[in-house]
Amino acid sequence: MKYHIIEKKNLDIFIKGLAKKMKVVAPVKKGNNSYIFSEIKKVEEIAIDYIPTILPPKKYFMPQKEKMLDFDLGGGKPADTASLELEEIAVFGVHTCDLAGIQCLNIVFNERPRDYNYLLRKNKLFIIGLECNKYCDSYASCALVNSHLPNGGYDLFFTDIGNKYLINVNTQKGEDFIETLNLEKASSADMTALDKVREEKRNVFKNEIDVEPSKIPEMFEKVYNSKLWEDVGGRCLSCGNCTNVCPTCYCFDMEDSINLDLKTGSRVRTWDSCQFDTFATVAGGENFREERSMRQRHRVYRKFKFPVDKFNRFFCTGCGRCSRTCMAGINLKEILKEVAEESKF
């Protein structure tokens, strides 16, 4: 691994150098203790110390709404895939939980048939991670799913080691940019400082739920028919907030819109949610997940059981967004504690 350093006072030089090459987005404050990824021009706009943004960086990989193709039912011309005019974007300040989310999406959209819209966007993004040295808030559970430490998914990764940042260069794209800034290479003292940061994190970032992470899928095998889901479903409003803000939820809907000539039109895909009543409704009006309790159970199993069976990894990154944004006050950590308690019997 290659490491460089940059003095904190020189971070503006880094951002300006980046902005000369591509559009730069970073976490910025929006209202009371709320943050969003948005375009920035100078370092003063960046919220370095932030809790997870309202929407994760997945919005740059898969937009909430995008046109997939144009068609002509009159036979005048075949369906034409919508051209993607993409600009290069640097996403600065991505926390490890969101890096883990990006890795999950990469796995899903690389499965055959591959999603080329996603992959084309991914290739245009320059991901710069930023390490959390403390818990965001009480909703976070990143240590439980081991997403509190960096594990790839970035081009560059920043760690605060005092009066400077240690930068881990992880890709050729990252190395090419670092070379343009002529940054100093990290010394042995800098690497020692990194080790100290990580050791302190191991003491601070502890699993708040009394369960061994490897046992979580086994726990869910025992509680599928638990009354817990009825209790949670009774509170759920089916608003879809939890899935919209989740960094690993990727469900979408396709809709064809016909123009006034009744011949031409377009196909658009938008984010969808397994929490909507219509999501599991099929031809004939049958809904195989009619109750909210079923939909809530499905959501949680899609984070801790089903993806482990298929991909051997959790699809919960511990960011806490679902609990933070839930209008009914449903807290994922509380659900996990109940699952852990019930599964003992």
| Percent helix range | 25-40%
Q: Which stretches are low in confidence, meaning pLDDT under 50 for 5 or more residues running? A: none
Radius of gyration: 22 Å
What is the terminal-to-terminal distance? 46 Å
Reported for the largest beta sheet, the result is: 7 strands, mixed
By DSSP, the count of extended strands is 11
Q: How many helix segments? A: 13
- For the largest beta sheet, what order do the strands appear in spatially? 1-9-8-7-6-2-3
The total number of structural domains is: 2
Beta-strand share of residues = 15-25%
Overall form: globular
Question: Can you tell me about this structure?
Answer:
The chain is globular and about 65 Å long. Strands 1-9-8-7-6-2-3 form a seven-stranded mixed beta sheet, sandwiched between helices. The model has no long low-confidence stretch (mean pLDDT 94). Helix content is 34%, strand content 19%. It has helices at 11-19, 58-61, 96-110, 116-123, 172-181, 188-204, 216-221, 228-235, 241-244, 292-304, 306-311, 321-325, 332-342; strands at residues 2-7, 23-29, 35-39, 65-72, 80-81, 89-94, 125-130, 156-160, 164-169, 252-258, 264-271. The chain is of the alpha/beta class and 345 residues long.
What topology emerges from the helices and strands here?
Elements: E1 2-7, H1 11-19, E2 23-29, E3 35-39, H2 58-61, E4 65-72, E5 80-81, E6 89-94, H3 96-110, H4 116-123, E7 125-130, E8 156-160, E9 164-169, H5 172-181, H6 188-204, H7 216-221, H8 228-235, H9 241-244, E10 252-258, E11 264-271, H10 292-304, H11 306-311, H12 321-325, H13 332-342
Parallel strand pairs: 2-6, 6-7, 7-8
Antiparallel strand pairs: 1-9, 2-3, 4-5, 4-11, 8-9, 10-11
